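Posted in: Protein Modeling Q&A

I'm a second-year student putting together a small comparison for a lab meeting, and my supervisor asked me to include a predicted structure for Endonuclease/Exonuclease/phosphatase family protein. I've never done this before, so apologies if this is the wrong subforum. The sequence is pasted below exactly as I got it from our records. If anyone can share the structure token output, I'd also love a short note on what stands out.
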Amino acid sequence: MRFCVFSRVLVAILAIFGGQAGFAADPAAPKEGTMRIASYNIAMYRGRAGQLAAELRSGNSQQAKRIAEVLQRVRPDVVLLCEIDYDSENDPARMFAEMYAAKPQAAGLEGLSYPYRFAAPVNTGEPSGLDLDNDGRTDGPADAWGYGRYPGQYGMAVLSRWPIDEGATRTFQKLLWSKLPDARQPIDPATGEPYYSAEVWEQLRLPSKTFMDVAVSAPQGPLRLLCSHPTPPVFDGPEDRNGLRNADEVRLVTEYAAGRMGDYFVDDKGVAGAIPAGQPFVVLGDLNADPNDGDGIREAIRDLIAGPQMAPDPQPRSGGAVASSASHADLNQNQTGDAANDTGDFSADGHNNLRIDYALPSKELRVVGSGVYWPKPGEAGAGAAGASDHRLVWVDVESVER
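Accepted answer (user: helix_wrangler)
Welcome! Here is the predicted structure, written out as tokens:
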């Protein structure tokens, strides 16, 4: 017991004095003329279809209230929410925006109005009818086009203060992995043969959820949001099928943002082409890839961050990430990346902290501020931030003068 108390005191000291000076939990409002864009994996999925909608409809979802509090403290103009179930009938994103984000969730906070929203079908939980994990069955969660127990699980949605041009918005749910140039086809190391049969490989979709190019009519001009949530590079075998898929999902974003492979990028409406040159955009999402640590193929995320079409990496930071890393030193002792850049605390599952959530602007935008919303222990908002194992990442941008 004395050791536990000492450990907690040590963590508190580290949180206050551990090299975290200069971090602010609640960011100041963006200056006039700038746009605050955010990405937030809110872990708001449930065990069965319709369960989340019923919980939100009650008006008393404690997790939704905490997520809304985080948004009200950061106050992004536009935010991508990952892991909010897609349900076209009940529309959980609408219920969350209207019943939680719009209502103050703590003293001194103001509600947020997000009158414009966009969500689209995802591959997670969508039955493929194929045996994708080679277990002799075709009806398991790993046999869906993207891992999931029901269609729409782990979906995503954009909430915006500004109009969304759905006519110009594109989705790429059905892109085939095998058609991606230089696709990383998984190989069974025991046999040297492809892990997937030819029949499966020819049908397998690359986006584990979907890839969305969302067109926003911002006051500063048209803005595109390149939104995705690649599969985690774990939960597989020696063939590394999830690691390879994650890397190619990240490369998909890189190639689209660079305006390459136009023949490959045929959207769900049948229109081909990547993003036009000179179009301002922000890459958003839980990309499940850390440039320095973790199990992914790091070159993929490094190539995206350092691409010639991108602005310099804003490297959002927080003091809470440093404190969290110190409090789980046994899990994070071999990390090589800066702990302040981490965006997720996965210690509850026995894993280390990682930087896997991103808001990366294109070179047509100038970064004037950024951060990870991760308060230090005892700070206002710390309890709300713990509603998800991920933390909200935000960036303030303004148009580059031409």
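A couple of things worth pointing out for your meeting: The radius of gyration is 21 Å. Residues 1-21 have pLDDT under 50 and may be disordered.
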